[in-house]
């Protein structure tokens, strides 16, 4: 179902210290109470239960495969034969790290805390996200999911910047911003925007991590210069570019083209059925409505959570392709009308959207 | 002056679990540890306005259901980001199967 406001399109201000940020606080959209599907406590406890087994298995496969693929890439370096190994290595480095960063940031991947923390730090380095900054930005993303001026992780702002989206399939702009942030943080500067969601006592850690990472990248660049080869950078750094496509492909589907400024994840998040390889890389974050409703549930329990909640959620997109078939036209419509969005239709068994909370968004919709 | 308030019966909470208790306009979380002891804290996470009773109890830790902030529910100690402020705790006693918490 497609929806758009009949009124003149509203220009959005995505700054975390701007007009829409203030409006979100004043209107009660910030830190609001979100809709949750009812699940009995006993079942919820079972779903939330932590274990190390699945994540240890997946981490051995992930890092073990990377080691083998990097070894083969180095062995065949100088010949075209190295390409498939680096392409696969790149996806595990520049895309699988996105979901590992995410899940370990929630602290749900492993039962054992140090394992979560270790994989979190490794994945943050690969995906070029400062572990302190992004822990706090993601906290805000869960508090104020796709609330304009509050959520620092809105991937597609309106009107969509399609060139930016295309460039990010190769990690170009993300890596550029990550590097400029790294240099700024390493210089001892925490931006005004970052200060809105990172507590003061955490800010020195942002700077410390940036300095450690800067030293690693400088050492890698120095080794490349010494060897007269980009091979060291093919192992560290560049895979964030040539392997980014998968995490961008899956990540855009999370909220792309859906409603903003609502407090029901069924309206602003998308669940998509995916193939097993993508689900391994993505660690089941294709169950995205479910993840946002219940972030305590580990990735390996999300299929079970999905089965228990689907009566109350919009029908999932049956494939990645189906998701893009609805999302791309929505992006194009949003170029002309920022208020346009895809309204998710609920099954007859679902509790209706709380019109009182979403009156302005939904009642004015032209369906 | 001590003010003991009946919160629930000991059978109302499973071992290694938590339940919500509202009283006099305030909300609390009552815990039953794996060792079958009872504890009480303020009911809302100190990070944001989220009921801890919807969270997960693991040994002596309560994890907030929204952002996974962790507290030691026996001491109230915040165990790291995104929670930075400790939880207030309350004395608890069990008498004749009733769980009582001391308020004020």
TrEMBL record, chain A:
The name under which this protein is listed is Fatty acid desaturase family protein
The UniProt entry, under InterPro entries, shows:
FA_desaturase_dom, Fatty_acid_desaturase, Rhizopine-oxygenase-like
Q: Does the keyword Repeat apply?
A: no
The UniProt transmembrane annotation reads: 59-78, 212-236
Molecular function, one GO term: oxidoreductase activity, acting on paired donors, with oxidation of a pair of donors resulting in the reduction of molecular oxygen to two molecules of water
Q: Does the keyword Membrane apply?
A: yes
Domain Fatty acid desaturase: start-end pairs: 79-319
Keyword annotations for this protein, in alphabetical order, are: Membrane, Transmembrane, Transmembrane helix
Domain of life (superkingdom): Bacteria
Which CDD domains does UniProt cross-reference here? Answer: Rhizopine-oxygenase-like
Q: Which GO terms describe its cellular component?
A: membrane
A GO BP entry is: lipid biosynthetic process
| Entries under Pfam families matching the protein | FA_desaturase (PF00487)
From TrEMBL, chain B:
Q: Which UniProt keywords apply?
A: 2Fe-2S, Iron, Iron-sulfur, Metal-binding
Report the sequence similarity comment from the record.
Belongs to the bacterial ring-hydroxylating dioxygenase ferredoxin component family.
The cross-references to CDD domains, in alphabetical order and at most eight, read: Rieske_RO_ferredoxin (cd03528)
Quote the protein name from its UniProt record. Answer: Rieske 2Fe-2S domain-containing protein
Per its UniProt record, what InterPro entries does this chain match? MocE_2FeS, Rieske_2Fe-2S, Rieske_2Fe-2S_sf
Q: Which Pfam families match?
A: Rieske
Domain Rieske, by residue range, is 5-101
Q: Does the keyword Chaperone apply?
A: no
Required cofactor(s) = [2Fe-2S] cluster
Q: Name one GO molecular function term.
A: 2 iron, 2 sulfur cluster binding
């Amino acid at each position: 179902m497609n929806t758009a406001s009949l009124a003149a399109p509203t220009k959005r201000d995505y700054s975390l210290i701007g007009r829409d940020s203030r409006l979100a606080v004043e209107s009660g959209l910030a830190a609001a109470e979100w809709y949750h599907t009812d699940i009995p406590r006993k079942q919820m406890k079972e779903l939330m239960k932590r274990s190390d087994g699945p994540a240890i298995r997946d981490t051995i496969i992930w890092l073990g495969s990377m080691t083998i693929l990097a070894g083969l890439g180095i062995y065949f370096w100088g010949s075209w034969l190295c390409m498939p190994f680096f392409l696969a290595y790149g996806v595990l480095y520049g895309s699988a790290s996105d979901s590992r960063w995410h899940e370990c940031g929630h602290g749900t991947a492993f039962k054992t805390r140090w394992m979560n923390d270790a994989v979190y730090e490794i994945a943050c380095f690969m995906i070029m996200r400062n572990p302190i900054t992004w822990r706090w930005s993601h906290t805000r993303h869960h508090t104020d999911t796709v609330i304009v001026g509050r959520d620092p992780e809105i991937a597609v702002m309106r009107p969509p910047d399609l060139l930016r989206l295309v460039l990010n399939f190769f990690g170009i702009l993300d890596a550029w911003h990550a590097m400029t942030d790294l240099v700024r943080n390493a210089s001892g500067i925490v931006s005004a925007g970052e200060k809105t969601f990172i507590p003061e006592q955490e800010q020195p850690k942002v700077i410390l991590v940036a300095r450690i990472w800067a030293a690693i990248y400088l050492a890698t660049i120095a080794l490349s210069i010494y060897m007269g080869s980009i091979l060291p950078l093919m192992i560290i750094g560049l895979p964030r570019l040539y392997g980014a496509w998968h995490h961008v492909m899956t990540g855009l589907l999370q909220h792309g083209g859906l409603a903003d400024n609502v407090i029901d994840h069924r309206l602003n998040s998308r669940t998509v059925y995916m193939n097993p390889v993508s689900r391994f890389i993505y660690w089941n974050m294709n169950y995205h409505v479910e993840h946002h409703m219940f972030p305590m549930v580990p990735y390996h329990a999300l299929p079970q959570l999905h089965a228990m909640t689907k009566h109350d959620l919009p029908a999932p997109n049956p494939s990645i392709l189906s998701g893009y078939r609805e999302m791309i036209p929505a992006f194009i419509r949003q170029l002309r009308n920022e208020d346009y969005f895809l309204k998710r239709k609920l099954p007859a068994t679902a509790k209706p959207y709380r019109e009182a909370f979403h009156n302005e968004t939904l009642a004015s919709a032209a369906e | 002056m001590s003010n003991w308030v009946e919160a629930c019966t000991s059978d109302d909470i499973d071992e290694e679990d938590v339940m919500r208790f509202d009283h006099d306009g305030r909300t609390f979380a009552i815990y039953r540890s794996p060792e079958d002891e009872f504890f009480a804290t303020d009911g809302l996470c100190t990070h944001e306005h989220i009921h801890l009773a919807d969270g997960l109890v693991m040994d002596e830790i309560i994890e907030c259901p929204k952002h996974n902030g962790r507290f030691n529910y026996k001491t109230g100690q915040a165990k790291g980001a995104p929670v930075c402020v400790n939880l207030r705790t309350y004395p608890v006693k069990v008498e004749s199967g009733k769980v009582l918490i001391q308020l004020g």
